[in-house]
Amino acid sequence: MQEMQERLNAWLQYWIEQVSSSQFWWQLGVLLIAAGCASLLNKRLQSVLETKNSTTSGFRHLAIRSAQRLLWPLSALLLVVSGRAILERYEVPVVVLDIAVPILLALAVVRISVYVLRKAFTVNPILKSSENALALSVWVLVMLHLLGWLPRILGVLDSLAIELGEFRVSVLSAIQLLLIIAVAFTLAVWISEIINRQIRKSSLGISPSMQVGISKFSRFLLITLAFLLALNAVGIDLSSLAIFGGALGVGLGFGLQRIASNFISGFILVLDRSIKPGDVITVGDKFGWVQEMKSRYVVVRNREGVDTLIPNENLIISEVINWSYMDRNVRVTISVQISYDDDPEEAMELVLGCAYASPRVLKEPEPLIRLVTFGDSGIELQLRVWIGDPENGFANVRSNINVAIWKAFKQAGITIPYPQRDLHIKSMPADMDFESLEFKSRTAKSSQPKERGGDENLSHDNDELDDSP
């Protein structure tokens, strides 16, 4: 602790001497000139880049945005380095400029790193905390470098190591591996997102399922390459991963087989094009349209706005109804009954005229009306219409047409029958007279629960009654 205090006092004394010397003001002048020129250059070029950026998209848009963030620190760094070279030519000390160079470089690294993170991942609280941690780490490294403590700290971290046969693992190498993997993984995700966006905007007529397949394959390939390159950059022999591959195979056989099955099933669904984003499907009792196709599951949203995550394996091994597999047109049936006292042909014309009460009904194929059956309470008619957007549901189509049918029947005087039941008594005991029969019938009728609009008729066959004493 005392040694650190002495080093700090010596460092402060050194800088007091530097500030009091004339060389300090030359360096300060170089910094002010570099900052001013960089600000003017940044102001001029930012407007030009913004004009170009408004008419570009894709990778060029990302490149211009990155240049806008790096313009000031890099231009200031270039001017500082140029001024530093001039002062060294005239043998003027450049201690202050030696400090400004890593600071400007760190500012550029922080800006471009934060931009890459925001473009590679969705903005969330974890990402924001990661940005703060990244900026803090970069500035801490700069401060350690300026204080001259960074080489000593790196040496201590490298000395903390363990030997695994011929392989040496130190704390420093582990940190380097994690950093390289993080950078490589971020770049891989970023590049895969760029590829995905370009495919979506492409005019080559690529099907939605093929777009998902290319996106999944490119991301998987880039992440795998990033991981292998990171291991190779740290100095790990890739041939030593054979043991890891064997362990992974055993893990897949025992505990990870369902995960592997869902992952492979996702590629099968993409390649055979049986399901694609936008399709309307029914899996078991789950109905909705496909929102996204992930590597492990498919997101299906129903009419209530609820998202159901269905594993890819279930879509392979179970029966799936795809309402829009070959043709998006779907037939909707609306059933209605009329009384036996009404004219069925007139009712059929009225029902057919109500087919276009919903604007979603297609004109081709044309709506059809059929007399289906003679029911217990009335004649059943069935209207059949076609729609071309099943993802919007069927209930609103039926509702609009049913309301139109109700109004048309009211105006034409056609009645929709209530449920009816007839009770016939064929025989009765000889010692029961007619008055007691009427009394019991009225009692039984009053005690039975009535359905809404119910109609019960009691008919008596008087010819079969025995009036003998």
What does this structure look like?
The protein is an alpha+beta fold and 469 residues long. 59% of the residues lie in helices and 15% in strands. It is elongated.
List the helices and strands and how they pair.
Elements: H1 2-20, H2 22-53, H3 59-89, H4 95-120, H5 125-147, H6 150-159, E1 161-164, E2 167-170, H7 171-201, H8 208-234, H9 241-254, H10 257-272, E3 280-283, E4 286-293, E5 297-301, E6 307-311, H11 312-317, E7 320-322, E8 330-338, H12 344-353, E9 368-374, E10 379-387, H13 395-412, E11 420-425, H14 434-447, E12 455-460
Span of the ends, CA to CA: 130 Å
Sheet with most strands: 5 strands, antiparallel
- Helix percent reads 55-70%
Quickly give the structural class: alpha+beta
Number of E-state strands: 12
What is the string of helix and strand elements? HHHHHHEEHHHHEEEEHEEHEEHEHE
* Subunit organisation of the chains: single chain
Average predicted confidence as pLDDT: 77
State the strand order across the main sheet: 6-5-4-3-7
* Percentage of β-strand residues: 5-15%
Task: List unreliable stretches of 5+ residues.
Answer: 444-469
SS element count, helices: 14
Shape field: elongated
Radius of gyration: 41 Å
